[in-house]
Amino acid sequence: MRAAQVSKLEGPEAIEVVDIPEPQAFPGGVVIDVHAAGVAFPDVLMTRGLYQLKPEMPYVVGGEVAGVVRSAPEDAHVRAGDRVVALTMLGNALAEVAVVSPRTVFALPDNISLEAGAGLVFNDLTVHFCLRNRGRLAEGESVLVHGAAGGVGTSTLRMAAALGAGRVIAVVSTPEKAEVARASGATDVVLADGWLAAVKELTGGRGVDIVLDPVGGDRFTDSVRSLAAGGRLLVVGFTAGEIPTVKVNRLLLKNVEVVGAAWGEWVGSHPNYLQEQWAEVGPLLAAGKIAPPEPVLYPLDRAADAVASLDNRTATGKVVVTIR
Ligand SMILES: NC(=O)c1ccc[n+]([C@@H]2O[C@H](COP(=O)([O-])OP(=O)(O)OC[C@H]3O[C@@H](n4cnc5c(N)ncnc54)[C@H](OP(=O)(O)O)[C@@H]3O)[C@@H](O)[C@H]2O)c1
Predict the structure, then answer these.
(1) Is 306 close to ligand 1, i.e. is its CB under 6 Å away?
(2) For a substitution probing ligand 1, which of 41, 124, 127, 182 has the most ligand atoms within 8 Å of its CB?
């Protein structure tokens, strides 16, 4: 089968399209003919060996697929011929065939294309975990998201209202990304330059209830400052590179929280959690209450460019690679 593979930890440019044997179907595994696969920022880090998960070399890029089930165990919740999305849990996605555990496979609603499906499961379940579980989002609360035109960002914009949020404020670095954020469902968009003052003005000085932060770096202290009393800052990632620190007196003085949100870790220690999440998110997608993503598509031959667009910050929205 054709696959996008990394054999040298030299960044996205070193991704090559190669012919390799199909993966072995393990007992109890679901075999999927992959039509499209999503890429995300962790894929950038993995191409340099900088992510916490370090697969054996060489490895196949990507963590999520959409396709059609070729075979499934008798007792699985999906059958041959079903349209599905699935998590390969980082690695083994950008290839013509994937074999996954049934607990990471989800039936794709009929109203969502395979290309859009390949761009939703990784980020949407991350954001659901962040807002529901770690952020304890209550009906009508306001949510601010950094890197709002990125993968996690657009997922937050598409989902927050369906999960109960009132105002959803997007922070982006360019006017072009502001357009993407608006189209993804932001109620307000502010530019990263001067964002704190703009948010204070928008909220009449009150601040926001939840900040979802996949960026880190120098946004962090201002994110604490942007919280309303009782607010929660969700630490999701560090695309800016620098891992920030917090002076805890700021938390005490304002009665606010900084909360770690590592979805993959949670999934690893809560085996039923993914299917519980899909039981809520799947019907919202099927009913159109969460809009599907409109990913930027790259053919498999350009897998390296797809991952590089996340690295060089030119990506807007979710990035998906079409496999067949
Ligand atoms: N905690 C979890 O469970 C979990 C799960 C999935 C992903 N993540 C993390 O979430 C983060 C975002 O992932 P993603 O797939 O959404 O990434 P993405 O699509 O590349 O979006 C990230 C955004 O970060 C901003 N950014 C700021 N400085 C940047 C820089 N130096 N380089 C690149 N982007 C920069 C960009 O927005 P602007 O240009 O508008 O600033 C960009 O749109 C990553 O750190 C990832 O590891 C965490």
Answers:
(1) no
(2) 41
